[in-house]
Write a structure and sequence with these properties.
There is one protein chain. By secondary structure, the chain is α/β, with parallel strands linked by helices. It folds into two domains: 150 residues, Rossmann fold, CATH 3.40.50.2300; 55 residues, Winged helix-like DNA-binding domain superfamily/Winged helix DNA-binding domain (Arc Repressor Mutant, subunit A), CATH 1.10.10. The chain is built from ten helices and six strands; from the N terminus they run E-H-E-H-E-H-E-H-E-H-E-H-H-H-H-H. A six-stranded parallel β-sheet has the order 2-1-3-4-5-6, with helices on both faces. Helix 3 links the parallel strand 3 and strand 4. Helix 3 packs parallel to helix 4 and helix 7 crosses helix 9. It starts with a strand and ends in a 40-residue tail after the last helix.
Length: 252
């Protein structure tokens, strides 16, 4: 039997190691690679063409939303499963719109992650029950009101969203240009365009916008962001991989 190949995209090393141990213990699953940032995840997905990418949202250089969009746009058979502490409606909607096949919160049981990987590899969708209920409620509400649910920053181009994240992470134009292989003038143009579109003309304002729309992780690791804007910490579940060793999942 062909094993399900999985790429882990998570910037916390300890969490990646825990996920690798959990998934590798299954006879039908093989972890073929690990990515520490979104840009690396896109590149490795292109090279390795795994069946499933387990993707965190808040990652440096390229967040999970943009990484998912680029992986899906590459027209490869890889499916994306989001695994994140964030469970806000906007995050969920943006990721499903970007092409994610599933969405689990880190409070989920370890056995649920394994089930999700298997289902997504078959071509099915898989969501945490609480996420699925909110998605259905959201679309039901939009139908009743006679309007479509749209992404809050849909008027920004993919490149502008990349620049937005890097600005919010504290990178200057020269660094952004080097990472994206663009000229400094081109970066300045993208930066000015996103400022004009958002009507935000300072780095602090762009950073607040990026945090509010899930483009960056809201922690003190980002320059210019207050320490009291910490990412919500998941307790137990898959997030418990960073704590004491997990016991084997109970039989269903």
């Amino acid at each position: 039997m062909k094993k399900i190949s999985v790429l882990l995209a998570e910037d916390h090393v300890v969490v990646r190691q825990g996920l690798r141990s959990l998934l590798s213990a299954e006879a039908d699953i093989e972890v073929v690679g690990e990515a520490g940032n979104g840009r690396q995840a896109v590149r490795m997905a292109q090279e390795l063409r795994p069946d499933v990418v387990v993707m965190d949202i808040a990652m440096p250089m390229l967040n999970g939303l943009e990484a998912t969009s680029q992986i899906v746009a590459n027209d490869i058979p890889t499916k994306v499963l989001i695994l994140s502490s964030y469970a806000d409606d906007e995050y969920v909607h943006q990721l499903t719109e970007a092409g994610a096949s599933g969405y689990l919160i880190k409070q989920s049981a370890a056995s649920e992650l394994i089930k999700a990987v298997r289902e997504i590899a078959k071509g099915n969708a898989y969501f945490s029950p609480s996420i699925l209920k909110r998605l259905l409620d959201l679309y039901r509400e939009s139908y009743v009101k006679g309007r479509l649910v749209g992404r809050g920053n849909e008027h920004l181009t993919s490149r502008e969203r990349e620049v937005l994240q890097m600005v919010a992470e504290g990178q200057v134009n020269k660094q952004i240009a080097s990472t994206l292989n663009l000229s400094i003038k081109t970066v300045e143009k993208h930066r000015q365009q996103l400022m004009d579109k958002l009507n935000i003309h300072d780095v602090a304002g762009l950073t607040r916008y990026a945090i509010a729309h899930g483009a960056v992780e809201s922690t003190g690791r980002i320059r210019g962001v207050s320490e009291n804007l910490d990412e919500p910490m998941a307790q137990g579940g898959v997030a418990g991989l960073v704590g004491p060793p997990l016991v084997a999942p109970a039989p269903c």
